């Protein structure tokens, strides 16, 4: 019965693991709802400011802001939004793959790459991957706030202002639905007119008009565009948080199901071993009785 | 219909208002400004203060904005507020308390006091009170 006892302890330990994973699944499901609410709440602002900025990019202003001018790309910055914790399936790995693929294209054109890591997973990944990490921020929690992000975003914007970066992208997971999260690389700077992909072609009338500015274009665009970048990065972080919970829920659901399958298999083996032991015992008794 | 345009008011936390309006009166950094249909494209920063919206049909509604941006396009006006609330939801007592608090901080000017922050807090509280008073005046009239 030694083998049977071993199998029984194994079943016990798998059952414990199953309890943990199913608890985590339920926690993730409730957190996902909150994260989704947060994501939906800030979506209108992000969408409207994107529309406004796409109008600005369409216009033909007398004052060209640095953020609107295409430069020769010598250095590309990526703001990579990842999670703080693991156990969320392939969410982060898929994201990092997307970054590296995109970065490779630029590298082949002779550009250098800088990374800004939001979330501790990105931080540790780029430390081991060997990218040039210029800023990192982790511990954003489940309710990320704009003010937590300002610092790291500012590092990248300053680099852009000083000409050390010629292109800035944000990489994060897009929440398609609970089952699907898609890593996307979005270009933030320089601004391109198709940035507000929600607005249709008839609205866009490039080239021929300009705004009236109050007080003056430089001050106004400076603060508006900084606000725009912050809101886009914030939106990416909030969306990624919703993705994290969804991915964790699915991963934990799979783990719970797999543990169930494993327990079924082991129970079968256990019953077989028990049956074999009983059969053996009976045949020994019968054999013994016949001998007497 | 011809004499109205679309207006979108959003804050960092939510979409506050969306609909067709006849006129918008907001507090720009260089003074109050009114927007009627057919206004030239305009981009301006807003001060903390009330935004008055006159609906298609003449009804009036007040919002409070704690700073932000206003964009005028031929067919749509967008207001990006840092925080935007319907003026009816403003709490006068809370605003008055915030004003007193800011004033006190302002007058004490102790070493740790962040002068610019206190000033912006004060401006915000005063703007909230201004919105409430405007609303009250309107209600008293009507």
TrEMBL record, chain A:
GO cellular component terms listed in the entry, alphabetical order: plasma membrane; proton-transporting ATP synthase complex
Keywords (A to Z) from UniProt: ATP synthesis, Cell membrane, CF(1), Hydrogen ion transport, Ion transport, Membrane, Transport
Entries under Pfam families matching the protein: ATP-synt
SUPFAM superfamilies found in the cross-reference section: ATP synthase (F1-ATPase), gamma subunit
HAMAP family: ATP_synth_gamma_bact (MF_00815)
Primary role: Produces ATP from ADP in the presence of a proton gradient across the membrane. The gamma chain is believed to be important in regulating ATPase activity and the flow of protons through the CF(0) complex.
Family named by the database record: Belongs to the ATPase gamma chain family.
Assembly behavior: F-type ATPases have 2 components, CF(1) - the catalytic core - and CF(0) - the membrane proton channel. CF(1) has five subunits: alpha(3), beta(3), gamma(1), delta(1), epsilon(1). CF(0) has three main subunits: a, b and c.
Protein name per Swiss-Prot or TrEMBL: ATP synthase gamma chain
Organism of provenance: Bisbaumannia pacifica
Organism taxonomic ancestry: Bacteria, Pseudomonadati, Pseudomonadota, Gammaproteobacteria, Oceanospirillales
Automatic annotation (TrEMBL), chain B:
Pfam families found in the cross-reference section: ATP-synt_DE, ATP-synt_DE_N
UniProt superkingdom: Bacteria
Gene3D superfamilies: ATP synthase delta/epsilon subunit, C-terminal domain, F0F1 ATP synthase delta/epsilon subunit, N-terminal
Cross-referenced CDD domains: F1-ATPase_delta
GO cellular component: plasma membrane; proton-transporting ATP synthase complex
Protein function: Produces ATP from ADP in the presence of a proton gradient across the membrane.
Protein name listed in UniProt: ATP synthase epsilon chain
Naturally occurring in which organism (per UniProt): Bisbaumannia pacifica
